[in-house]
Amino acid sequence: MADDQLLVRGALAALLSLELDLEVVAEVARGDEVVAVALAVRPDVALLDVEMPGIDGLAAAAALRDALPSCKVLIVTTFGRGGYLRRAMEAGALGFVVKDAPADQLADAVRRVARGERVVDPTLAAATLAGGTSQLTARERDALVAARDGDGCSGSTVQRKPPRRLESMEVVRITPRGYCHGVVEAIRIAKREGAARAGSEPVTMLGYLVHNEHVTRELEEAGVALVAEPDRMKALEQVTEGTVIFTAHGISPAVVEAARARGLNLVDATCSDVTRTHDLVRELVASGHHVIYIGKRGHPEPAGVLGIAPEHTTLIESIAEVDTLELPDERPLAVTCQTTLSMWDTQAIIERLVERFPTIEVHNEICRATQERQEAAVLAADDVDCVVVVGSDRSSNSQRLVQVVREKGHRPAYLVDTAADLDPEWFRGVHRVGVTSGASTPTQLTRAVIAAVEALPETA
Ligand code: SF4
Question: Would 402 disulfide with which of 309, 395, 413, 425, CB 3.0-4.6 Å?
Fold first, then answer.
């Protein structure tokens, strides 16, 4: 689903997720992210808004037709203009509906487009017919004109399946969940390098590209080896030739320099959100600040950020550390943070810093993908008995999802890597289970967990 309006996208995704046979597997806010994300998650249908930053939805539809022909396109737009409809059809879209269509019509439209049927809002189609050339067949034109004239075209052509009813536990699919744009891009880069250099030179990831073993295995199959050592400088000692890939959560400049000195070919898969934090810290230090960085010790992202200017940055993890913080000099202070922390924890630490250092400059750098997943999980917790988070225990954002559901949603939450980790004891007396997943969790793992939870019988 691609729509730059967060509220609209969230609402549409939530509505579609209520349909038991539909799953929103990825969300993006820009037209120029559509193809990369679609290639990574390979959806059956892409729902595209028209007006988006980057490229518009109609250009994205055309690009998707070339890059992933198996993915059908449904344009879902605020602007019901005939010209858009004509261009959408020319771009290969099968469906075109307006956003204020009733929710059940949208779900029907997705199903029909997935089956290869053409679905067009009848009023729009009529307007297009009045305006000039149409891409519709004669039969489709007749049906749409009949619909406009009140002959019930939609009703006669839409084969609506009654929604499936669960006999066991009900699973609430929390959206957004799963792959973020940074992970999708990092995987794409790594696979591209593995394919381009296959048989000519080794390609090595310096640490886990994302904190997920299933993705790592997939990449190894694509010709990308892994050095799992968490200390990136030590990991580099094991790479003697070929190409080295820096992971999504960034790298210290000292490691980059050392890799260059070894004569390696460098590929940077750092997420743009992490790069932005690196740039921010560079600017703050250059303008004379000392930077307090809120992060998790031992995670590669803080190691990368602190490596920018070790003498002018200080890592803290908790409120307690604010109270005991000793600063090396009299420089003005600024605070920023790791992209994948709990937004509530980070806010509390920042508030304590502001209490202690009222002039501190605040830059909250938790990424949008992390925030959206946390907010959705806490909101959904209200409506379920417990939440299952699918993700690796190495993944910071997956662990934070568990934490925020427990602490802010006040519901039990469990982290599972695969369906095999589910413990039936967790679900004793449970009727509704929320399922979400970390930003580095492959969709197929989440699907398997949902199926396994749905298969569990309700127990008193
Ligand atoms: S979780 Fe955020 S910072 Fe990390 S890769 Fe995804 S978008 Fe980038």
Answer: 413
Instruction: Give burial (CB, 10 Å; 0-12/13-18/19+) of 76.
Output: buried
pTM of the model: 0.69
User: For the sheet containing 313-316, what is the strand order?
Assistant: 313-316, 290-294, 333-337, 361-362
Same domain membership, residue 327 and residue 374: no
Shared-domain flag, residues 336 and 393: no
d(C-alpha 280, C-alpha 285), whole Å: 9
Cis peptide before 176 (omega within 30 of 0): yes
Tokens representing 5?
């309006």
CA dist list (Å): 147 to 108, 161, 234: 16, 21, 68
Per-residue tokens: 45: 């249908």
- C-alpha torsion angle, residues 287, 288, 292, 295 (rounded to 10): 50
- Cβ of 369 below 6 Å from ligand 1: yes
Q: Which residues neighbour 155 within 8 Å (Cβ) at sequence distance 6 or greater?
A: none
Rounded distance from Cα 269 to ligand 1 centre (Å): 11
In a domain, 88, yes or no: yes
| Number of domains present in the structure of the chain | 3
Q: What's the pLDDT score for residue 4?
A: 83
277 CA distance to ligand 1 centroid (A)?
11
Sign of CA pseudo-dihedral 121, 124, 130, 133? negative
For residue 450, give the CATH number of its domain: 3.40.1010.20
Domain membership of residue 308 as a residue range: 273-366
Helix 181-196 to helix 213-221 angle (10° resolution) is 20
Q: Is the CB of 248 under 6 A from ligand 1?
A: yes
What is the number of the ligand 1 atom nearest to the C-alpha of 272? 8
Residues 6 or more apart whose Cβ sits within 8 Å of residue 78: 49, 50, 51, 98, 99, 100
Contact, 342 vs 301, CB < 8 A? no
Known catalytic residues?
301
User: How many CB atoms are located within 10 Å of the residue 424 CB?
Assistant: 9
pLDDT tens digit sequence for 86-121: 777 778 888 888 776 666 777 888 888 888 888 877
Q: Is residue 261 part of a domain?
A: no
